[in-house]
Specification:
Elements (H helix, E strand, L loop, with lengths): L2 H37 L2 H36 L7 H4 L5 E2 L2 E2 L2 H24 L2 H8 L15 H36 L2 E4 L2 E4 L1 H28 L13 H28 L5 H31 L3 H19 L20 H4 L1 H4 L7 H12 L5 E2 L4 E7 L2 E9 L1 E2 L8 H7 L3 E2 L1 E9 L5 E6 L4 E2 L10 E2 L9 E3 L9 E6 L2 E5 L7 E2 L3 H11 L3 H4 L8 E3 L4 H8 L4 E2 L4 E4 L4 E11 L19 E11 L5 E5 L5 H9 L4 E3 L5 H4 L6 H9 L1
Parallel strand pairs: 23-24
Antiparallel strand pairs: 1-2, 3-4, 5-8, 6-7, 7-10, 9-13, 10-11, 11-12, 14-18, 15-16, 17-18, 19-21, 20-21, 21-22, 22-23
Length: 667
């Protein structure tokens, strides 16, 4: 193949690669932008994606400069291959039918550098949340009990610094590995005549990279001084007696020793003192083992264990105090309620409001009753039962509520039915928690289709549920020419009532280019081909409450069960959201199902309201004192509203989340 033909092939391959990248990445981003823009959160999209792009570009540039310069010096230090040890054994290596010359080796090195840099950049771009928390971190107003450092440093700054340190060490280690491999293959380093031989230029080059690795390692020892305050290897979560009196001094020693070893290697780049370097390296290893392994073990066995409670008592108190602070338990008060024999005759009358709210129905069993009595049609299904409270006849009463959503599998599962006709659930059912109706059934407060409510507080003007806990499929609304009512609204008296969506709960899809985009993204070209899509049509997707809020605020954690609330005009979902941190001194962590330690700090700082008809999402700050939510308010100034801005009727239904309560009970 001629040189010109080879270049043409390379250009074509590059063009194909760019096109494939655009086709794979761009549709997702454009669709997400349209969706976020429709909800009014385009600024959130640009902040998150912009930070990812910035991180990608910075890491790619730094890694590219590092790997590229290393390959440049590697090729410069390697003699022409026809004069190397390879050539002494025969013909030089062939790549593509041509000798692997210095220039070709340099180009190959730059390609490898680009690939490695790309991998580093892609991986590190996922650290956007840590970077933003680090950059916008404020003050907690309370310090850790050992160093007196503000807790916000541990929660918001330390995680990014640890990620950055790991990246530096990983970069240096991989670069060193590539260089050693390259020099060995080129014959610049190896065993010759029973002894080790190395080119002076190669050793200097490797030495510079070893220095970088050691400096990154020293930085890691320094950050471990803070990490040790939350480790759980001893009698307490956090630093214990041995950690405070042995490990912390040892880590400082290792910081100094590692920097010293790096300096010794730097000195040997110009003055060959191999004996001194060898003694220093051996001494470093001995110090590493002695300071970080032997000394802590001896102190633990000889000093701590014989009187462990006495030694660890102050650190146990740190563990208790900081765990209470991390889980919001510092203001809780303990009260004892001694058991009293017998029940006074007037106890029931004096506590009638309490008795009326004692839960009789088990949600796990009640859901089956709902399904038997109130699903009414095969295309409806009840998935969950939530407990809420409403003002009924002047009294707060606990009420069980379940939305009537579309089933995951329609009886006639055609494209028209999935995406045009069966677009929404309808209404909900509700009953008092402590009352039983006829024949053992619940005493319904809301039932049937259309919904029949026994109290004004439970009435809604528009009971349509376009967004729910399990809402399936994307939908085209309104579909058909203006005036057509193709969507099944609800069944009644043997006939079906149809409607035409009148809200703004979707992304406009009337233009050809948007139809093409969503056809490609959804993997369904019926969107482009169908006559149902008209100029005013919208496409509704990411319709489940949990998915919806996660896409808007991926930096929050969420309660597993959003609950339905009946407003004046329509129904709403309320989703509890949490700010969390995996780093908090002396705090006992939450373990996941696999036993891995994770969250060490949590606050229920956000209440999210999702309109079940329009899909509008509103985020309200319920704990403005939380330093993490304060940080996110600085990052996303257009995302959050104060809790007072929530409509009063919805604010009356804000509750203490059960998931958080269970976490706090375990602490």
């Amino acid at each position: 193949m001629s040189s010109l033909s080879s270049r043409i092939v390379q250009v074509l391959l590059g063009v194909v690669g760019v096109v494939l990248t655009v086709l794979l990445v761009t549709p997702e981003l454009v669709v997400e932008y349209f969706w976020m823009g429709e909800l009014g959160y385009a600024s959130v999209f640009w902040t998150i994606r912009g930070t990812q792009v910035l991180l990608f570009a910075l890491v790619f540039a730094v890694a590219g400069l590092y790997f590229g310069s290393n390959f440049y010096f590697l090729v410069r230090n390697v003699p022409p291959l026809w004069a190397s040890r390879w050539a002494q054994e025969g013909e030089p290596p062939q790549v593509g039918g041509k000798p692997l010359t210095r220039d070709r080796l340099k180009r190959l090195g730059y390609v490898i550098a680009g690939i490695l840099s790309l991998l580093f950049a892609v991986g590190f771009s996922g650290r956007w949340n840590e970077l933003l928390r680090f950059w916008y971190a404020g003050s907690y107003g309370q310090s850790d009990p050992i160093y007196g450092v503000d807790l916000a440093y541990h929660m918001l700054e330390l995680p990014f610094l640890q990620a950055l340190q790991s990246g530096v060490v990983g970069l240096a280690f991989l670069g060193l590995l590539v260089l050693v491999t390259g020099y060995v293959i080129a014959g610049q380093i190896g065993v010759q005549d029973g002894g080790f031989e190395a080119d002076a230029g190669a050793l200097r080059h490797l030495g510079v990279n070893i220095i970088l690795l050691l400096l990154g390692w020293a930085w890691g020892f320094y950050l471990d001084l803070y990490e040790i305050l939350q480790e759980g290897g001893g009698a307490v979560y956090g630093a214990g007696y041995t950690d405070i009196n042995v490990m912390i001094p040892a880590l400082w020693v290792m910081v100094a020793a590692t920097i010293g070893l790096a300096g010794l290697i730097g000195l040997n780049l110009y003055q060959r003192r191999l004996r001194t370097l060898g003694v220093g390296a051996v001494g470093y290893v001995v110090l590493l083992v002695g300071a970080l392994v032997l000394a802590p073990t001896l102190v633990t066995q000889l000093t701590v264990l014989p009187s462990e409670l006495q030694r660890e008592r102050p650190y146990l108190q740190h563990n208790i105090d900081m765990t209470r602070e991390a889980y919001g338990l510092e203001d809780f008060k303990e009260r004892s309620y001694p058991a009293q024999p017998g029940l006074p005759a007037n106890a029931v009358e004096d506590n009638e409001a309490t008795i009326d709210n004692v839960r009789l129905w088990d949600p796990r069993l009640l859901i089956d009753t709902y399904r038997q009595l109130q699903e009414i049609r095969l295309y409806y299904e009840f998935y969950t039962v939530d407990v809420d409270r409403y003002m009924l006849d002047g009294d707060y009463r606990q009420v069980m509520v379940s939305p009537r959503e579309l089933t995951q599998q329609l009886p006639e599962d055609t494209w028209d039915n999935r995406h045009v006709r069966f677009t929404h659930g309808y209404g909900s059912v509700a009953n008092l928690v402590a009352r039983e109706g006829t024949e053992g059934s619940p005493e319904f407060l809301v039932k049937d289709i259309p919904p029949q409510a026994e109290h004004e507080a439970l009435e809604v003007d528009n009971p349509s549920l376009y967004y729910g806990a399990r809402t399936p499929h994307y939908r085209i609304v309104p579909a058909g020419v203006p005036g057509d009512s193709l969507e099944l609204d609800y069944p009644q008296s043997g006939e079906n009532k149809y409607t035409r969506y009148g809200g703004d709960g979707g992304v406009a899809v009337g233009s050809f280019w948007k139809q093409l985009l969503f056809s490609y993204y959804m993997g369904d070209f019926n969107i482009l081909l169908t006559d149902y899509v008209q100029d005013d049509s919208q496409i509704q997707f990411w319709n489940r409450v949990g998915e919806r809020v996660r896409r808007i605020a991926p930096f929050l954690e969420f309660d597993k069960d959003p609950y339905l609330v009946m407003g004046d005009d329509r129904q709403y979902w309320i989703q509890d959201a949490y700010t969390t941190a995996d780093s908090f001194p002396y705090s006992e962590p939450i373990r996941d199902q696999q036993g891995y330690e994770g969250t060490r700090y949590i606050r229920n700082s956000v209440k999210i309201v999702v309109d079940a008809y329009s899909g509008e999402v509103s985020l309200y700050v319920s704990d403005p004192e939380d330093p993490i939510i304060q940080t996110y308010q600085r990052i996303f100034p257009d995302l959050f509203q104060p809790l007072d801005a929530m409509p009063e009727k919805l604010r009356d239904h804000v509750r203490y989340p059960q998931d958080l309560f269970e976490m706090q009970v375990e602490r």
